TetR family transcriptional regulator
Amino acid sequence: MTESERVPAERKRRRPTSSGVVLSADLIVDAARDLIDSQGAQAFTVRKLGAALGADPSAVYRYFRNTEDLLLALADRLIGESMAGFGPSGDWGADLRELGLRAYRSALRHPQIAAFSTIRVTGRPHEQRVVDTGVGLLLGAGFDEATAVRHYHALVDTALGHAALDAGVLRLAPAQRAADEQAWQDRYGSLPADEYPNLHRVREQLPLMAASAVERALDLLVAAMRREAVDRGAAESGATEREAADRVAGEGAERAG
Amino acid sequence: MTESERVPAERKRRRPTSSGVVLSADLIVDAARDLIDSQGAQAFTVRKLGAALGADPSAVYRYFRNTEDLLLALADRLIGESMAGFGPSGDWGADLRELGLRAYRSALRHPQIAAFSTIRVTGRPHEQRVVDTGVGLLLGAGFDEATAVRHYHALVDTALGHAALDAGVLRLAPAQRAADEQAWQDRYGSLPADEYPNLHRVREQLPLMAASAVERALDLLVAAMRREAVDRGAAESGATEREAADRVAGEGAERAG
DNA sequence: AGCTTGTGTCAACGGTGTTGACGTAACCTG
DNA sequence: CAGGTTACGTCAACACCGTTGACACAAGCT
């Protein structure tokens, strides 16, 4: 885990800090996550991290090249956590939806990280595991390699994109969020029917926009993929489909351990 | 435009700076955009902005409360620019796709701005115009009010979400981007077939993931909406039941507060 | 002409990430 | 059990950052 330390070799000389803590890459990642969770996103600082660890801030640089490197390691850990306990149900469409939702939720749980690091391909083990699973679901559904990759990409990026979007709302201070919402209602609440006829017509439905659209977007994506799979299945014979699905299911069970 | 100045009143005493430039909110927004466009996102700094303007950095605070206020004003301008020249073609699906793509492109054109400003509802005229147009397209396609709002929301948020995602890549310096891509290929290029069977199988298609998935996602969304519209048209009487079910299902996904 | 005051400038504060030098303690060798 | 290497924690410093309060001055009004 957390492979990209500054010095990739295993550590032997584990000297405790002045406060007695024995540092490690994992411990630092833990502290970073706790800091972000408890203090809020903008409270994350190398100096505060050092204080939370009971160590000099610069000690972090013995383990990570820079803060971004550290945040990437944190992002990968979150990916792993979000997928804990996930196992294919047999319905590839529902599984893909679940996969996207899990990515969304975990990204959203840590707004700062979501807005900053879901944008990067971490390329780390947890991420690779998820990609393998997701692509496997689509291959099992009968899509060819290129289409499976493209559809997986569209689905996951959509989930993460919504997360990045919604994370921004969470990053706002509560007071400002309330003010924003009020301003929104003020502006959209009373619309001139002649100038904005469509907005006027749907004015009673506009509060629907306050909720995240991620589930709806995922539903639509999966629906489109399902339809496409059915069309493909009608054209060819669906014999291969069941075999591949079995392969995916077996792999998911193995991952849990 | 640019409404949220520190002092909303119109300015009268326009004293030139030491370098002879006469400041204004618009001029500052212009300079900020030029700076971001030319120097890159992370080059944006109040101090550098001051230098680019030929003024003391603190002069900016006579026009905007803080940097975020300034960037919001900039975001507002971009919304207007992105929709310039848009006109419905008659194919509502294609128009919706175009609407989403325009939102995506304009957000992406200024990565730094996209990363944080797509999260805010500006509630200003430009935005209202876009919402009215998009909802109108869906109403014209035969969707009821609630569905039109929800589908518009899903489409636009997906486009903006992808923009926020892809903007992160653009925010990286070119050298780092290349290094990232190389690292990505190294990690995903040679994966053990036994551990990652699906990734191994699609390994030749993985470069497809380097490109943005926004068009593919929009295509899938529009395809799903088209299919739904056809179904609704075919069985007009059964619409009410499905609608009620939708409303119940949609209530679970509120943004966390 | 004189007064008010808006506005540009200056200096400063308290932060930030990051680095290079340094000492010391932990491990390896003998 | 002694000595040497050196990894790693610490310290001080650098170059930035956003933001603010005091100040000077010129624009505009009376």
Observations:
- Chain A touches chain B through 78 residues (CB under 8 Å).
- Residues 1-8, 238-257 of chain A have pLDDT under 50 and may be disordered.
